[in-house]
Design goal:
The complex is a heterodimer of chains A (about 220) and B (about 220).
Chain A lengths: L6 H4 L11 H23 L6 H8 L3 H7 L3 H25 L4 H18 L1 H9 L7 H21 L11 H18 L10 H13 L1 H12 L1
Helix pairs in contact in A: 2-3, 2-5, 2-7, 5-6, 5-8, 8-9, 9-10, 10-11
Chain B lengths: L11 H5 L4 H27 L2 H8 L3 H7 L3 H23 L6 H18 L1 H14 L1 H21 L10 H17 L10 H13 L1 H12 L5
Helix pairs in contact in B: 2-3, 2-5, 2-7, 5-6, 5-7, 6-7, 6-10, 6-11, 7-8, 7-9, 9-10, 10-11
The chains are: A mainly alpha (about 220), B mainly alpha (about 220).
């Protein structure tokens, strides 16, 4: 594991009561449960995972679970929301670094590829197991998509080129999301960063055309 | 569930004489497929049960299992049906003399318009097929892309792009899915410039794709 560990991955707190204020114990119980649902679901699959599995992995009692979450689905969606917020924050930070715009777009892309490559368990949970949670999969995918489009378009207005294709950003975000999804499904998340050269080319062409994107790829490789 | 082999006609063989069997069977099979498509749109594949399908198709479970081995076999048949529907739509959309880029643009327009009228088909192809088994998508993608490449080859035009057709295909799927999920399938034609660009760019290059995107967008009011 690398320094791109998310908070969720660090949520392995000492088990049992430790004389902490009740509010803090509840908070840590919640965090333990969220970390647990990620690990268990990624390993067993969403459908096969039971609340008992989540409790055992977390070392938390059933009663506490139901004080915090309605059910397995609720717990899973809460963990998912936190992971996506973490990913979005990292992408925003990378994209906000100073420099010329294509480099910033590539930094945002690298942050995404790195996040999914860092930990196969979390990636599997975030993308694959979400598909098992009824139609919420579709609306989550859409809202993640829209928020990334908003991030990229925001930075584009700030020193980026005028895109040659009007929907260039939507194509760019779609390229990253589908590439990440396919590699994670195939169990090849760790290889994501090796795709950065080709993917950067794919992202840039609709904005600046094939010649300029090829030139940039040549410069990056050289 | 026992499946009846075709040699075990027994007394029902006599009954079959009075019914136009193949017509009846074909329409029954189609009813089951339509029920699968509708149920997936509403509850996703994973949320769909055999009970949902037989309820919608107004048939018995026994009849279902006579036509399909299981839920997955029925789903695969539904995907095949949707692909054939889109192929037919694409074929009818252009004339034999059209230059490849124009033919592809016209096919794109026709497919999006047809999906706008029947969003459940779009959901099945773009959401469920991906979530159920990436192999399903791979199967139809590996049929569609060579067909597109042949259009340019037949016209004697060399490939003018380093963009990846497979990635373009996945991007288009995601864009369509997002529009359908937002319950905005009637606005699918708004994606025309982007989808036309994706369909043309990997073969004829950025400049030709921009031109087709512009032409495709011309048909959208506002």
């Amino acid at each position: 594991m690398s320094d791109t560990e998310t908070d969720l991955r660090k949520w392995r707190l000492p088990r049992g009561r430790h004389g902490l204020p009740r509010e803090l114990v509840t908070r840590s119980q919640r965090e333990r449960l969220l970390a647990s649902v990620v690990r268990v679901t990624a390993a067993k699959g969403y459908e096969a995972t039971t609340v008992a599995d989540i409790l055992e992995e977390a070392g938390v009692g059933r009663e506490s679970f139901y004080e915090l979450f309605e059910d397995k689905r609720d717990c899973m969606l809460a963990a998912h929301r936190i992971l996506i917020e973490d990913l979005e924050a990292r992408v925003r930070d990378a994209y906000a670094e100073p420099g010329e715009w294509p480099g910033r777009l590539e930094a945002a892309m690298d942050a995404t590829l790195g996040w999914f490559a860092a930990d196969p368990t979390t990636s599997r949970f975030t993308l694959v197991e979400l598909g098992a949670v009824d139609t919420v999969f579709r609306s989550r995918v859409r809202s993640i998509f829209e928020s990334f489009v908003e991030i990229v378009d925001g930075g584009l207005a700030d020193g980026g080129p005028k895109p040659e294709l009007h929907g260039a950003t939507r194509l760019a975000v779609a390229a990253i999301m589908t590439t990440v999804y396919e590699q994670v499904v195939l169990g090849r998340a760790a290889e994501l960063p090796t795709l950065r050269g080709d993917l950067s080319f794919e992202l840039l062409v609709p904005y600046i055309g094939e010649e300029a994107a090829t030139e940039r790829r040549r410069r990056l490789a050289g | 569930m026992q499946k009846q082999s075709s040699s075990e006609k027994g007394f029902s063989g006599a009954l079959a004489l009075s019914v136009p069997t193949d017509v009846g069977e074909a329409s029954q099979r189609q009813r089951i497929i339509d029920a699968m498509i509708a149920s997936c749109a509403e509850k996703s594949y994973r949320g769909t049960t055999i009970t949902d399908i037989v309820g919608r198709a107004r048939i018995s479970r026994t009849t279902f299992y006579k036509r399909f081995e299981d839920k997955r076999a029925c789903f695969d048949a539904a995907v095949t049906y949707c692909i054939e529907l889109m192929e037919e739509t694409a074929r009818n959309a252009h004339s034999p003399g059209d230059p490849p880029a124009e033919a592809v643009r016209k096919a794109t327009v026709a497919i999006l318009e047809s999906m706008a009228k029947r969003p459940a088909v779009a959901q099945l192809l773009c959401a469920d097929a991906t979530a159920v088994d990436p192999q399903v998508v791979e199967r139809y993608r590996s049929a569609v892309l060579p067909a597109l490449a042949r259009l340019w080859k037949a016209a004697g035009e060399p490939r003018r792009s380093q963009l990846d057709p497979r990635l373009a295909f996945s991007r288009a799927q995601l864009l369509i899915l997002n529009q359908v999920v937002a319950d905005e399938s009637d606005r699918l034609p708004e994606l025309l410039p982007e989808i036309a660009y994706l369909a043309v760019a990997p073969f004829a290059g950025h400049a030709a794709a921009l031109e087709q995107a512009h032409l495709a967008g011309g048909g959208v009011p506002g």
